[in-house]
Specification:
about 90 residues; 5 helices
Length: about 90
């Protein structure tokens, strides 16, 4: 993940505070709301890590074919990652 969990928590706190101040949301449980926003942000930001891991597994399964055809790992990684991002409707 690009950001630390502490920084994501900070972003969540600031986001919740801004939404409350702007009267976009109201809550009686600010800490609970911050916790849920933090969890959602972590889930969303870890999506790229999960996609990268899935790409590695796929490319490992096709490593012999890639070696025979002379395919470049970095190029194939980028292509497979793009396809998986499209499959999961992720914006990376």
């Amino acid at each position: 993940m690009i950001f630390s969990r502490e920084y994501i928590g900070y972003l969540a706190r600031r986001t919740v505070k801004h939404l409350i101040d702007a009267k976009f949301i109201s809550t009686s449980d600010v800490k609970g709301t911050e916790s849920r926003v933090t969890d959602a942000l972590i889930e969303e930001m870890s999506l790229e890590d999960r996609i990268n891991e899935e790409v590695r597994v796929i490319l490992e399964a096709y490593s012999e074919e890639m070696r025979k055809s002379g395919a470049q790992y970095a190029e194939m990684f980028k292509k497979v990652k793009t396809e998986l991002a499209r499959k999961y409707k992720a914006v990376l």
